[in-house]
Amino acid sequence: MTPPRPAVTAGVIAVRVILCLLIVLTLGMLAWVAMLRIAIVRRTGRDWALFWCQLVLNIGCLATLEEHFADHWISNVGMAGLLVQMVGVVVYYLIVDIHHRQRATAAPVPPMPPYGPPQPVQMPTQPTQPMQPYGYGPPATPPTPPAQPQPPRIDQVRAELDELSQLLRRDPRDPRNPGGDSR
Q1: Is the separation of the CB atoms in 176 and 167 below 8 Å?
Q2: Is the dihedral of CA 34, 40, 41, 45 positive or negative?
Q3: Is 134 or 36 the better-scoring residue by pLDDT?
Q4: What is the pTM assigned to this prediction?
């Protein structure tokens, strides 16, 4: 089954028709306008280079159509160059613009996951309370429970860590410390 083709708006078709008519009705003298539109829309170096080359070639062909070359073979070559540009630019413009529009409206591809080991998930942290020096001041109050329910394993780990931190804060030389050895 083929994917559905992207819908082309009436504005896009109107711009294509107007530019192609402009090129054909001016016998290729304004072919640079379509090339300029392609360069602006696609923003690639190749399109800008083609625009500038086409503009220089167009000006060169127009220069051969001056009055003092009227009965000379140079004016015939210049007019033939304009007609070849007219056909070439119309075909190139339609092909490039249609392909660019199809790529732009195609469904985006989901990004690939990064290579390497999985990144650790950051757990939401609660604001920490200032730590008391060893054995001085009242014991730290336990943190307030989070608003959202936590899995029971996380609560158990937190309780064990709180108990361990209280044990580490006790001064072993404090006579009030039960089980602490006094040196």
Answers
A1: no
A2: positive
A3: 36
A4: 0.51
